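Hi Prof. W.,

I finally got the DYW domain-containing protein prediction working! I wasn't sure whether to trim anything, so I left the full sequence exactly as given:
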Amino acid sequence: CSGLGVLSLGKELHSYVIRSGLKINVYVGGSLIDMYLKSGKREYAERVFSKLEGKSLTIWNEMVAAYVSEDKIVEALGLVESMKEDGFTPDVITYNTVLAGYARNGRKDEAFKLLSEMSQVGPKPNVISMNALISGFHRFGLNDDALELFRDLQSSRNVSIKPNAVSITSVLSVCTDLKLLDSGKEIHGYVLRNDFESNVFVSSSLIGMYTKCGSIVEARLVFDCTDQKDIAIWNAMISGCVQNGMFDEGLSVFRRMLLNELKPMPVTFSSIMPACAHLTTLRLGKQLHGYIIRGGFEDNVFVASSLVDMYAKCGNICVARSIFDDMHVPDTVTWTAMIMGYALHGPADEALSLFERMALENGKPNYVAFIAVLTACSHAGLVDEARAYFDRMRKDYGITPHLEHYAVVADVLGRAGKLSEAYEFISKMHIKPTASVWCTLLGACRIHKNLELAEEVAEKIFELDPKHMGSHVLMSNIYSAAGNWKEAAKTRVAMKRKGLEKQPASSWIEVKNKVHAFVAHDKSHPCFDQICQAWEVLEEQMKREGYVANTEDVLHDIDEEHKRELLCGHSERLAITFGIISTPPGTTIRVTKNLRVCVDCHTATKFISKIVGREIVVRDTNRFHHFRDGKCSCGDYW
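And this is what came out:
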């Protein structure tokens, strides 16, 4: 019953034993205790244990372990004393269990005292004893002690406590969590010297450590040198690539795994799906969704959460919501992914409504959920609501605001034109604001053309980070918009002197299973001539509909005619026009841009959507824009 997880059946059998008047011997009693403990019903196990005559050492140890697993160390120690009174001598399993309890509760001195007693009078400590200490110390946060103990074990002459594969994976977890690359390499050396590299658990841990530390080359070497790769090895490599922003490489490893005829597991899909989300490859995301359905993983909460996130970030919020609604019990990650989806797409009221549902149905929202709902407020200009959610974090849920929360609230205030209030809000943060937090206000200064405040904010940013690229670009643009070409030029010279190079604007679109990238004013695309011809026709139609070019975002000291010509070469226009001439009528056009959509391109795309009768979805650095029938989902607030 414990193996099948059928507690009700086990309780029926227990009831039958009692009704039948059968004596519960050590074997039946041990089985009942084991079943109740594995079902998480310690109180039932205690009742059986208290009435059981002729207890065995194994049963005593099971009960001690049950208390330790719940961090009830005092009760566990009391049980050990009762064991002695009952005539049993604690064995190494008993002591190792208590050692684990001490370590995982940070009671280091008591743990080492018990270890000393074991060495002198009790059962001799073994490698399991040491693993219990390393794992427990790490769990409590005594990471230096865990590392020091592992180093001591390496140099020990006592063969019985020499590190094994479990010791290595435990201490590698310390290096992974703290990103201790040098210590990780030291342990890798021990692995090679002692022939542990063929152990799949060790190899998987090494890959995880290297990728977490950003050393993807070393991770790949471990991966390539592992002859017998199990699914855990492949998952570690896929996850590592994606976490380090190597999305194409992650997809390549995933394809190799399929070619090696390994069946993906739920964690595989959870690891690879963010690559599709980042690259906005909806086609590939749909293919992975097909794998998930065929594998029967669609009910897995982690897989479903990754699907919700992928569809939302690939521009299909309706499918994301459909998957969310079909889930039996969404977890916090799923709720947050759906809320953030609405924050990026709109409407904001859906995001806020979901957040309130989450608070009622799922319990406590975490700090990421608050980032999501605050982002929704920012994209809709909901200043009062943002203030209220920010206050609720601490008052209702005891969550201390992170830098991200402050940045989003500052963004809300800045977008709404409340620049002085945003400045005061940042100045009074309980933690020191970073350059990125101040940069949100600098962006608002550009929108609302406040040069004086922009200069003051920029000074603060450059004190914190003299090479902050985004702020240099913003200041150059702010000066240019104000007609102060001299200061704009000085800013660009400063960028060059510091080795800073502005990221070129680019957009990409997927057509017929191929991604086409466009850079502003780049004429290298094979269809460039057709794109220009189609754009000229579109522009004439737009003008007849009332379109007038807005040149305020063309920040060059040139005449208006030249500015209008520059607008025509913006990357998103090239991508959209290519999409129109390359896909059947009525097809939704999906474009991704690496920068914020400019005001004129936003206006132009509204006209285009009405003229061609298509939905055009543009994802920029701020949000998604759904253009339909001459209108945008952002309500011109972005």
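Residues 555-565 have pLDDT under 50 and may be disordered. Does that look reasonable to you?

Thanks,
D.
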